[in-house]
Each structure stands twice: as structure tokens, then as C-alpha cells.
């Protein structure tokens, strides 16, 4: 019996263009100034050191790190230190009302319905847990953080690795077969399925589907019948 959902964010409950055309350019615009200004703060310096490790350049200068971070933003790399820094940078944008966290109306309604019916909701995104909290705190529908019982990011591993879903399941009070993972990316769904989770593929933009995963165009098409 299904008891919980784990949802991806970008492309599943949030428009891809909100992330690519609003959040990423905002981070690209502010990252150099943010890193230069805050590099001595522990939470930032920790990510700078982690970036040097990912670059395999322990002696990289601050300018080298900034150039690499900008390249990682341009090429949408899901590298943990970048994702952690982006969350810190977006905080100012949300608080300054430069943007609100986009949610598809059908996704908001679906999340509310499932929550009302007693299903437990979790989030797993490449965006950091801080970035997830911000998106839901400053969402188009107000502060909806109370809908979710837990948040996971790339600190559990990358979204295309089955071990990441195993790591998440070790932290949840459910068996994998009681959980549905929602995503727009087939490689992520394959990894979740390999870890024993049920899956649902969101094909909002007409992506290729796979017979391995139940697929829907949006959440108005979702049915639990599929998982009985
Ligand atoms: C938490 S909002 C920012 C999303 C983000 O940075 C990202 O890389 C999207 O990844 P997802 O796993 O949600 O597709
Ligand atoms: Mg996605």
C-alpha cells in the first residue's frame, strides 16, 4: 500500500524555465560578489573548499573557484558545493521579492490533496535543502513548507544513482514499495525503481516516455489505481 511520495522539483512541480531563466541567471549574476564578500564565513568557506576538491585543484585561487562556479551554472552541473551556494544566494532574491517560487497549479492542488488524505510528502531535488525551503516558503501560494515532512538534496548522492534512493529510504519509516517517486527525468526514475520505489513520470513538455514508468502529462491525470 502506498503511504508516501517523494517529489522532484524542477520539471515536476515547478516549471523548468523558472529554474533556468530566473534562478540560475540570478545566481550567475551574484555569485562572484557573494563569494568574495562571504568567503571567510564558515558555511561559505566550506563550500569553496568542497569546490576545490571537485575541481581537483587544491591550490585554486578564489578567482579560479568563481570562474569554475560560473561555468558550472552555465552548464547546469549538479555539483553539491555549487548547489549549496546557490541556495544561499537565492535567499536574498526571495526575501527582496525579486521572484516567488513557482509551482504548477495542478502540482499545488495534488500536494494539498495527498497531504489531506494522509499521505506523507518528501522532497528530493538537486537544489539544496536550503533552496527547497526557500522555494516553498516564498511560493506563489505562500508558505507551504508544512506540506512536507522531509527534504533531501545531493548530500544523499546524485539523483541518477540507486544508492541515493536507498540512503533516503534508510531515513524514512517506510519500505521502498510503499513510496512513489515523482520526476520528469527517466534516469532518475530508473535509479529510484532500481532501489525498489514506485515511480511516476511527469511528461509536461512532451518528453520521451518509457514503458518502465507510469507517465502523466500533469497531476490531474494521476491515479493510485496504477499502484494497486
Ligand atoms: C530547489 S529549487 C532549485 C532547483 C535546482 O537548483 C535544480 O538543480 C533542479 O534540480 P531538480 O532535481 O529539482 O530537477
Ligand atoms: Mg526534475
Automatic annotation (TrEMBL):
<protein>
    <recommendedName>
        <fullName>Enolase-phosphatase E1</fullName>
        <ecNumber>3.1.3.77</ecNumber>
    </recommendedName>
</protein>
<dbReference type="GO" id="GO:0043715">
    <property type="term" value="F:2,3-diketo-5-methylthiopentyl-1-phosphate enolase activity"/>
</dbReference>
<dbReference type="Pfam" id="PF00702">
    <property type="entry name" value="Hydrolase"/>
</dbReference>
<dbReference type="InterPro" id="IPR036412">
    <property type="entry name" value="HAD-like_sf"/>
</dbReference>
<dbReference type="GO" id="GO:0043716">
    <property type="term" value="F:2-hydroxy-3-keto-5-methylthiopentenyl-1-phosphate phosphatase activity"/>
</dbReference>
<comment type="function">
    <text>Bifunctional enzyme that catalyzes the enolization of 2,3-diketo-5-methylthiopentyl-1-phosphate (DK-MTP-1-P) into the intermediate 2-hydroxy-3-keto-5-methylthiopentenyl-1-phosphate (HK-MTPenyl-1-P), which is then dephosphorylated to form the acireductone 1,2-dihydroxy-3-keto-5-methylthiopentene (DHK-MTPene).</text>
</comment>
<keyword id="KW-0378">Hydrolase</keyword>
<dbReference type="GO" id="GO:0043874">
    <property type="term" value="F:acireductone synthase activity"/>
</dbReference>
<keyword id="KW-0486">Methionine biosynthesis</keyword>
<keyword id="KW-0460">Magnesium</keyword>
<keyword id="KW-0028">Amino-acid biosynthesis</keyword>
<comment type="subunit">
    <text>Monomer.</text>
</comment>
<comment type="similarity">
    <text>Belongs to the HAD-like hydrolase superfamily. MasA/MtnC family.</text>
</comment>
<comment type="pathway">
    <text>Amino-acid biosynthesis; L-methionine biosynthesis via salvage pathway; L-methionine from S-methyl-5-thio-alpha-D-ribose 1-phosphate: step 3/6.</text>
</comment>
<dbReference type="InterPro" id="IPR023943">
    <property type="entry name" value="Enolase-ppase_E1"/>
</dbReference>
<keyword id="KW-0479">Metal-binding</keyword>
<dbReference type="InterPro" id="IPR023214">
    <property type="entry name" value="HAD_sf"/>
</dbReference>
<dbReference type="InterPro" id="IPR006439">
    <property type="entry name" value="HAD-SF_hydro_IA"/>
</dbReference>
<dbReference type="GO" id="GO:0000287">
    <property type="term" value="F:magnesium ion binding"/>
</dbReference>
<comment type="pathway">
    <text>Amino-acid biosynthesis; L-methionine biosynthesis via salvage pathway; L-methionine from S-methyl-5-thio-alpha-D-ribose 1-phosphate: step 4/6.</text>
</comment>
<dbReference type="GO" id="GO:0019509">
    <property type="term" value="P:L-methionine salvage from methylthioadenosine"/>
</dbReference>
Amino acid at each position: 500500500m502506498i503511504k508516501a511520495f517523494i517529489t522532484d522539483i524542477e520539471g515536476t512541480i515547478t516549471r523548468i524555465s523558472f529554474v533556468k531563466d530566473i534562478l540560475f541567471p540570478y545566481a550567475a549574476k551574484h555569485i562572484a560578489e557573494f563569494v568574495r564578500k562571504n568567503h571567510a564565513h564558515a558555511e561559505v568557506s566550506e563550500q569553496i573548499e568542497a569546490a576545490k576538491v571537485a575541481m581537483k585543484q587544491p591550490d585554486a585561487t578564489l578567482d579560479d573557484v568563481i570562474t569554475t562556479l560560473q561555468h558550472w551554472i552555465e552548464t547546469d552541473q549538479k555539483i553539491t558545493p555549487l548547489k549549496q551556494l546557490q541556495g544561499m544566494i537565492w535567499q536574498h532574491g526571495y526575501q527582496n521579492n525579486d521572484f516567488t517560487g513557482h509551482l504548477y497549479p495542478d502540482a499545488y492542488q495534488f500536494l494539498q490533496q495527498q497531504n489531506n488524505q494522509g499521505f506523507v510528502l518528501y522532497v528530493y531535488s538537486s537544489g539544496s535543502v536550503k533552496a527547497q525551503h526557500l522555494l516553498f516558503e516564498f511560493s506563489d501560494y505562500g508558505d507551504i513548507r508544512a506540506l512536507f515532512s522531509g527534504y533531501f538534496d545531493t548530500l544523499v548522492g546524485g539523483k541518477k544513482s540507486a544508492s541515493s534512493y536507498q540512503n533516503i529510504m534508510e531515513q524514512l519509516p517506510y519500505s521502498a514499495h510503499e513510496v512513489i517517486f515523482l520526476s520528469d527525468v527517466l534516469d532518475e526514475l530508473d535509479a529510484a525503481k532500481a532501489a525498489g520505489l514506485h515511480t511516476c513520470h511527469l511528461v509536461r513538455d512532451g518528453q520521451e516516455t518509457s514503458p518502465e514508468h507510469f507517465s502523466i502529462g500533469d497531476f490531474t491525470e494521476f491515479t493510485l489505481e496504477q499502484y494497486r
